[in-house]
Design goal:
By secondary structure, this protein is mostly helical. The chain has helices at 2-26, 39-50, 55-62, 66-81. The longest helix is centred in the N-terminal third of the chain and has 25 residues, at 2-26. The chain starts with a helix and ends with a helix.
Length: 82
């Protein structure tokens, strides 16, 4: 009997948290860690990449790692395609 009550309570908790996440997304809130690069920095990184600069050099100029630059550029490219 207690197990059935626990399962019901768990289902209610999951439903409430799902509704809360959906409401937050609708309001434009973002989940996860804070972004390392701003939109302006990503645009600047794209310009630098078009000039032929490498990811390590761009990262050094922006104060982050080459992997961060690579992920940001890849995500920006995916957003432009979609």
């Amino acid at each position: 009997m207690l197990a059935a009550i626990a399962q019901l309570e768990r289902a209610l908790i999951l439903a409430r948290t799902k509704e809360g996440r959906e409401r937050a997304n609708a309001q434009g809130r973002r989940f996860g860690p804070e972004l390392k690069l701003s939109k302006e920095q990503i645009a600047h990184a794209q310009d630098l990449q078009r000039e032929g600069r490498g990811l390590r050099e761009i990262g050094a100029l922006l104060g982050c790692s080459a992997a961060t630059v690579s992920r940001a550029l890849q995500k920006k490219e995916e957003e432009e395609i979609a």
